[in-house]
C-alpha cells in the first residue's frame, strides 16, 4: 500500500500552442509570480474541478424542485406493471439464493 507521503511517479504532458497563446499565459504567470508550468497546471486543475462539479451537481428549476418535493411527499400508487416487475424480481432473487 502506498502511504500518503510516498512520492507519486510523475507523467509528462506536452502541448503545442501558438506563440501568442504562450505569451499570454506567460504574462499571466509572471503577474501571479509563478512559473509558466505551475500556472498552466493550476489553471487546468481549477478548470477540471469546475467542470466536474458542474456535471455532478443537479440543478433544478423552481417548478422542477416543487414537483420533486410533491412526488416525494405524495408518491403515486405503483402501476400494475411496476407491481408485476417487483414481484418477478423478488422471485428471481429468491430462486438465485437457493441455487448456491
Structural class: mainly alpha
Instruction: Give the SSE string.
Output: HHHH
Biggest pleated-sheet summary: none
The number of helices is 4
Strand content: under 5%
Low-confidence stretches: none
From the alpha-carbon coordinates, what is the Rg to the nearest angstrom? 27 Å
The pLDDT mean sits at: 92
Which geometry do the CA atoms define? elongated
Number of domains: 2
| Helix content, binned percent | 55-70%
Could you give the count of β-strands?
A: 0
Distance between the termini: 34 Å
Short structural description:
With 100 residues, the chain is mainly alpha-helical. The chain contains 4 helices and no strands.
Describe this structure in words.
By secondary structure, the protein is mainly α. The protein has two domains: 19-56; 62-95. It is built from four helices and no strands. Helix 1 (19-32) packs across helix 2. The longest helix is centred in the middle third of the chain and has 21 residues, at 36-56. The protein is elongated and about 65 Å long. The chain starts with 18 loop residues before the first helix and ends with a helix. The model has no long low-confidence stretch (mean pLDDT 92).
